[in-house]
């Protein structure tokens, strides 16, 4: 594993030039929402090749879902680096898992930009985007949050997005198993997911 975090801190300055760079705020769900939500997730989005994607397309596979955006200055690159490192550490067990990145900024995050962005981390990460209404629905059913912040009304194109920074780990039926908080070590996350997948099974 190479030092993605150091490399990406510099690389994404070019990709995210239209954005303002400001303090990121972590909008996590409350404890009850985070751990006691026992509903399967139902949603419809679009992949980076224009295909409609629903929760049913992931049936039978574990999911690791992260909400973010390409203009995120630090939290998203760090989290996606952790995700990519965990995939490498899982080895063959990663075949049971689909890692997913959902943009909360479809206005700026085009399919092409997302393809370039995710390629820096791991080509196995599935990118999803959709109209605001679809994005809002998916965010809601995952008990995640996001908020657009415009610091200068005269420059509405310069903004940041506060958003939930944890990763949601789902079982093959689409039920939430747990959330991994921002800052978790890839080694710890990979070991935990391997243990859970060994017990609960799942189709590769």
Blueprint (SSEs and pairs):
Layout: H1 4-15, H2 31-35, E1 44-46, E2 52-54, E3 62-68, H3 75-90, E4 97-103, H4 111-119, E5 126-128, H5 132-141, E6 146-150, E7 159-163, E8 167-170, E9 176-180, H6 186-200
Parallel strand pairs: 3-4, 4-5
Antiparallel strand pairs: 1-2, 3-8, 6-7, 8-9
How does this structure look, described?
This protein has 204 residues and is of the alpha/beta class. It has a domain at 1-13 and 62-89. Helices cover 33% and strands 21% of the residues. The chain has six helices and nine strands. It has helices at residues 4-15, 31-35, 75-90, 111-119, 132-141, 186-200; strands at 44-46, 52-54, 62-68, 97-103, 126-128, 146-150, 159-163, 167-170, 176-180. A five-stranded mixed beta sheet has the order 5-4-3-8-9. Strand 4 (97-103), helix 4 (111-119) and strand 5 (126-128) form a beta-alpha-beta unit. Helix 3 packs across helix 6. The chain is globular. Keywords: Copper, Disulfide bond, Metal-binding, Signal. Belongs to the SCO1/2 family. Disulfide bonds join 72-76. Pfam families: SCO1-SenC.
């Amino acid at each position: 594993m190479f030092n993605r975090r150091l490399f990406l801190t510099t690389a994404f300055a070019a990709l995210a030039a239209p954005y303002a760079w400001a303090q990121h705020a972590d909008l996590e769900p409350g404890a009850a929402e985070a751990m006691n939500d026992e509903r399967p997730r139902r949603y419809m989005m679009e992949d980076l090749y224009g295909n409609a994607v629903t929760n049913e397309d992931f049936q039978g596979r574990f999911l690791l879902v992260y909400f973010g955006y390409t203009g995120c200055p630090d939290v998203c690159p760090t989290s996606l680096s952790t995700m990519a490192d965990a995939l490498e550490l899982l080895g063959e067990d990663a075949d049971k898992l689909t890692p997913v990145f959902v943009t909360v900024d479809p206005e700026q995050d085009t399919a092409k930009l997302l393809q370039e962005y995710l390629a820096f981390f791991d080509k196995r990460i599935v990118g999803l985007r959709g109209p605001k209404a679809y994005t809002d629905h998916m965010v809601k059913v995952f008990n995640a949050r996001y908020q657009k912040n415009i610091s200068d009304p005269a420059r509405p194109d310069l903004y940041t997005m506060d958003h939930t920074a944890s990763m949601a780990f789902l079982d093959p039926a689409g039920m939430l198993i747990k959330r991994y908080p921002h800052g978790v070590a890839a080694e710890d996350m990979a070991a935990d997911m391997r243990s859970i997948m060994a017990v609960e099974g799942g189709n590769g």
